[in-house]
Amino acid sequence: MKTKKYKIKEAFYTLQGEGFHSGRPAVFCRFTGCNLWTGLEKDRQKAICKFCDTDFVGMDGENGGSYTAEELTQLIVRLWNNSEITPFVVFTGGEPLLQLNEKLIKEAKKENIEIAVETNGTILPPQGIDWLCVSPKAGSEMIVQQGQELKLVYPQDNALPNEYEHLNFDHFYLQAMDSEEQETNLIKTIKYCKSHPKWKLSLQTHKILNIP
Fold this sequence. Notes:
This protein is α/β, with parallel strands linked by helices. It has four helices and nine strands; from the N terminus they run E-E-E-H-E-H-E-E-E-E-H-E-H. It has a single domain (6-208), classed as Alpha-Beta Barrel (TIM Barrel), CATH 3.20.20.70. Strands 3-1-2-4-5-6-7-8-9 form a nine-stranded mixed beta sheet. Strand 8, helix 3 and strand 9 form a beta-alpha-beta unit. Helix 1 (69-80) packs across helix 2.
C-alpha cells in the first residue's frame, strides 16, 4: 500500500498575523491546492474566489516538498524548536482540508502539537482539530457551520455578515479585503464592527509589520 504524502507549498516559524491568535508564535504549514481557484492568474476571473492573494501553487516555498505524516510532523517539531512550550501549528492553504486527514492529525498529536486550521468551510474537517477558523467565500457552499472562529473578508458581494451570525462559532471577525480599495474597505469594516458589536476587527498585522 502506497504511503500518503502531503504536498506542502511552504512551512516556516512566524507569528500568527490575524484573527483570534494574532501575535501568537506558530508554525505555518501551507498545503498546495484549492477548490475555489487554481492559483493561476489566467484563471482568476473564472474562479469562485477572485480576491485570494496567497501563492499556494507548487512546492517551491521555504521547506516546500512532499512529506509523509511522520516527516511533516517532525518538520513542524524542528521548526518550533522549543521543548518547554506546546507546539502550535496553523494548517492553511489554499484549502488545507483537501489534504489534511486523521492520519496526520494523529501523528501530530503524538508530539502534543496544538492544531489550528484555516479553511473556506466547503469540506467537512476530520476529528482532532483544536482550533477551526472558517473564512466563507461568496459563491461557494459553506457546509462547515461550527467552529471556534469565523473570519469573513469584507466586503464581499453576496456574503453579508448577517448571513453568518446564526452559526455556531465562538468568535466572529471581519477583515478588510486586501485590494486596490483596501483603505476604503478598512473604513467600511471598522464602521460595520462599530455598528454590529458581535463582530470584531481582524487586521493582517503580518503585512503591516512585514512579518513573513
